[in-house]
Structures are given as C-alpha cells and as structure tokens.
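From the pipeline queue, job 12 of 40. The input is one protein chain; the requested action is below.

Action: predict structure.
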Amino acid sequence: MVNFHKAKKNKSYFEAWYFKHQCRQGMVAVIPGFRQDENGDQSAFIQVITDQESHLISYPAFMFQADRERMTIQIANNIFTPKGIAVHVHQGDFSLSGTLRYREFLSPKKESTSSLHRNARMPYHHQAISMFHRLSGVLEIRGQAINFQGGIGYVEQDWGTALPESYVWTQCSGFAQEDSCVIASVEEAPYWGGRRLSGECSIYYQNTEYRLDTNRGAKVHRWSARELLIQQGEYRFCANRLDSGPRIPMFQEDSLLQGRPACRTRYRFYEGNTPIFDVTSRQSSFEFIRPERMPYQVSGQ
C-alpha cells in the first residue's frame, strides 16, 4: 500500500489521514494532512475534531514528513504511526496533547478503495486502513484528561486533486459491542466526459466481512445527507442519521466537504427479509458534499 502519493508540480492536491478515537467519554478525531494549491504553494495541517468543536492548525510544508511506503506521518512534533500517535497541538486557548497506543489493525480483507476511484485518473480517492482496533492511553484537551483505555479506533486515508461533485459517507466502529465496523459511501463525479454515480459499503460483523459495490452489481436506491440505501442481490444496507447540528468543514475552513464526526445513526443490514443487525450508535460519523444536489431516491443507474 502506498502511504504518501505526493503532489504533481503546479497542480492542486491534498492528502490526509483520518485517525478517529472513541470511548465512553467521547470522540476525538485527529487529521494530519498536506495540501498544495494550483500555484504549487504547499502547506501542512492538523485538524482536531471532538463531539463539540473543531480546530484547524496550519504548518509550513517543511514541517511535514511522510514515508511513501509505511504509514508514518510527522508534522512538527506530532507523530502518527500504526502503533499509535503522539500529539502536541496548540491554537489560542485550545490545546491537545498526549499519547495513544494502538493494538493490531483490523484491515479490510476485501478491496476497500472507493469503487469509482480505483481508476488512477479519477480526482478523489479514499481507503480504509483499519476498520477497528483497540486503544490505550490518555489525551488531554485544555488540560482535561480523556482516558481511551479499551476504546475503539478507525483509520482512513483520503487523497486527490479535487472533491466529487456530490458525496455522502458514513462510518461507525464497535456498534455491536465487539469487533465491528460499517463504512458506506455514495458519490457522483465526472467520468470520461460524463457523470457517474458510484456506491459501496464494507461491513465487518461477527467475524464476517460483507461488501456491496456498484462495480459488482449493487444499486444505490436512496442517498442524501441523512440516508443511504444500497442493495446487492439479497443484501440490503440502510443508514439513517437521526440527529442534526452544525456542519464542520473538513481539511480546510472553506471546504465543500462537511461533516458530523459524532452523531446518532441507525444502521440496518438485511439478507432478504432477515435482519443481520439493526443498531443505533451515538458515535457514528457522516460527511457530505453539496447535499442539495443529491436525489433522495434514485430511479435508475
């Protein structure tokens, strides 16, 4: 797996790694990233998102380092690896510091890169690195400690030259009080002179991994900033976001990509008319781009 894909000269580009951590006390996501504008000007950033707030801290590009093959990222004195993270972030009256250790990653056994963007020519890519792993350690926010002992982590990577025209994504780990994860997305983007709708869903539940993918015959029946419905054969997945609240820009202050990193969502998964699970979690995540362009119901593909 390529960890850092690097930008081309004088072309807009971004790359970010989404480290989500949750426990009974709440959720903290830390997103280190790199960006380059159309003039070739480069910078780095770390975004910190909690249940209640978001902070985006910029750094000069020379403070950013990333190994091309191994998942090792460093920005100033903040380090991110498969073994854990060490963070020391300050912005005004906000501060985040501490160390978290990760146990073994539960990596997808099946291909998890966004189905629309497996083609290297496509502008946006995202890939799950760990669907589920256990945590230990403590983070302090403004000096207040959050103990993540026994908590749950998730890691994803995003990169590309542009965002999709419209997009919705949801993720939740540990929803069944065991090793479990749901990742689902639907997106629409330019494709060979036209536009293409693509959807996928990866589920790990009770030691079984399921995958629904429009490249393998799945159909997107509904998608919006509040709902996803994807079906492939006898398998049917539905996500319904149940609460509302402020949207948080992701990766940069004026980003079209906005989200709710900690929200209440109901997830249902069926084989035929038989429910495999029907659960509601308060630590799910939803992200979306231009939800007003999303047709609530899809009549054909």
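Job complete. Residues 244 and 263 are 8 Å apart (CA to CA).
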